[in-house]
Amino acid sequence: MLVDRNVNVLIPLCPDVFATLCMALGSVPRHIDSRGSHAIQPAQKAFSMTAKASPTSAAAPAERPEPPAAVAHDRMANAIRALAMDAVEQAKSGHPGLPMGAADIATVLFTRFLKFDPADPTWPDRDRFVLSAGHGSMLIYALLYLLGYESVSLDDIKNFRKLNYRTPGHPENFVTAGIETTTGPLGQGIANAVGFAIAERHLAAEFGDIVDHKTYVLASDGDLMEGVSQEAIALAGHLKLNRLIVLFDDNGISIDGALSLSDSVDQVKRFESAGWNASRVDGHDAGAITAAIEKAQKSDRPTLIACKTRIGYGAPTKAGSEKAHGSPLGADEIAGARKNLGWTYAPFEIPSDILSAWRAAGERSKSVHADWNKKLAAFDKRAEFERRMRGDLPKQALADAVKSVKQTLAATPKDIATRSASEFALESLVLAVPEMVGGSADLTGSNNTRTKSMKAMSASDFSGRFIHYGIREHGMAAAMNGMALHGGIIPYSGTFLVFADYCRPSIRLAALMGERVIHVMTHDSIGLGEDGPTHQPVEHLAALRAIPNLLVFRPCDVVETLECWQLALEAKDRPSVIALTRQNLPQLRKTLDEQNRCTAGAYEISAANGNADVSIFATGSEVSIAVEAQKLLAAKHVAARVVSVPSFELLMQAPEAARRAAIGDAKVKVGVEAAVRQGWDAIIGSDGAFVGMSSFGASAPYKDLYKHFGITPDAVADAALKKLD
Ligand SMILES: Cc1ncc(C[n+]2csc(CCOP(=O)(O)OP(=O)(O)O)c2C)c(N)n1
Ligand SMILES: [Mg+2]
């Protein structure tokens, strides 16, 4: 974990020394010895990986970005290969195939194109690189180490996949500086990248050329087979995100073997049909890759470069086969690979000329970074730009907005659906918090996420703050993660709660990464009525509450909805889901209360007359049912209190005194929620009574459904009385 100071210091070599070194190293075999590599097919003609002009080249070679030092491309790429195979071998687990196969692509990208500064991995205007195929994590760890990032030392590489090192099995952005997003679940990275690219364009539209960077992705077959990639590429093509460049590690291999076992998609045609530029190159030909990236940079559309590669490149018997995908190569195979690659060095040893060349590549953007800093210093919107990039809220404006909405609601109460309450809150919040970028997956009118002031974002106008994501819930959630990771934006969006399942993989990753994304999920129970059980969430609240670090809010009226929005915005390191009703609800909080009463997750919304015999806990639309039940019980001389529980998570983490105060000590506890019981025992105990759902819903007007499923004031009162007996 300690930074390896010996190797993290750039070894300054004057050009003469470089030249001498290179001449001396000229005798080192750079080409794979064909006698020792029967498994390597003739198609691998480009074993000499030195940069060379390619027939597909658009620019004259003289104009090309060249490697920063006179060390041949293939030796630099082989440093990645060697570190990957040695680290996986030492860890006795991991994936050597991708880093070995994609080493040439990565070397070209990082030494010639990518704008970044290892000394400041959070530089806002850096290019973003997303390793969508997270199983190839050793590729990015090798790069970070070679380029001179402090976050990955040689010691970390030697301890790949070990506890408390910065080289976990799959890249985790919260562990290792220089990793832009957490990947591993295939398809997520490429879909996050669409969010990065949207964020870049949106912020550039507002702040001008202080925001001027690109997003690069390395994606594998698996990334492109996953359904979410379709949603992502369709959206990117539609928005003409021309600063998004995907390098496809087109190796034709996945875990089961040849891709032909399960796939016959022509990816180039697929991307073209989604409005992308797409081309194929030899992924071991540095010149061809260079030319293709140069072309991509000039494109008016996003670009796919399908780079034909050989998985496990260099391994004598396993290259080109699934055997190189996900397990250590073994000592013999590694010895053979070293021979094939002309790599004569000990495990984990990177010769100083190669390391220096990599470190020099890490210095490439220093002056660009320095110029950018100067520009920022003179930028008239600097304070606002920096506030947004830090993720700090405009505190006063937000507080003022919340206060004034509360005053309005105290003066003129509103008995409205919480989805409408959300829209009412948003009308003020989006004006106070300009970094909020909303959206919906084709349910804008139902989710109430677009306010009157919001203009739609489009390919011709990225300043719009509302994104029509189309019917792409998964792609939307993944893009939101990318926007939040980019910084400068608080993404929120809408769909029906039942489709949380369609977003779940991305919500889970937002929670793991600790990203502030806010999901408005409406039509949150059988209360949606006639659309029936396909659309009525039953298990979704429990399923979402099971995700660590996710805040699940279910406000009971218009005031709580505003308070939950405030808490979601203030939760800088957590995603939130705000579950909202389709049906109207009475405003229960009629008097002005400037405090946010939802902060502790639960609070007594209606006190008992005297000492309570019964505590009724409820969420969302069932709180008003609980209040009616309280009246029925009072008529029978049973004192009951009603506790609204807008967030289980906040209740569980609240200080003990607050938690005890909310839960109380009445001898009977009743939980009410039009959903399954799972999770409720933490509040009501296993002996508590629960009024909710234990099956799927049905299609009917919602009032009939509440009666049919027994979620009524009478049922709640009866459940309490039974327990009192
Ligand atoms: C959503 C998801 N499903 C399954 C896996 C398990 N998995 C890891 S890599 C992989 C496929 C490997 O093929 P490819 O993506 O082409 O990578 P390559 O073997 O070429 O490196 C699979 C199925 C995963 N990581 N994510
Ligand atoms: Mg593959």
What's the quick description here?
This protein is of the alpha/beta class and 725 residues long.
Strand order across the biggest sheet? Answer: 9-8-10-11-13-12
| Global Rg | 29 Å
- Strand portion, in percent? 5-15%
CATH architecture of the largest domain: 3-Layer(aba) Sandwich
Any idea of the CATH class of the largest domain? Answer: Alpha Beta
By CATH, the superfamily of the largest domain comes out as Thiamin diphosphate (ThDP)-binding fold, Pyr/PP domains
Q: Which fold name is given in CATH as the topology of the largest domain?
A: Rossmann fold
Helical stretch tally: 28
Class inferred from helices and paired strands: alpha/beta
Distance between the termini: 62 Å
Shape: elongated
Largest beta-sheet characterization: 6 strands, parallel
Number of strands: 18
Name the ligand types: thiamine diphosphate, magnesium ion
Overall number of structural domains = 3
Low-pLDDT regions: 1-63
What number is the mean pLDDT? Answer: 92
Q: Helix share of residues?
A: 40-55%
Features:
725 residues, Rossmann fold, 3 domains, five-stranded parallel β-sheet, 28 helices, elongated, binds magnesium ion
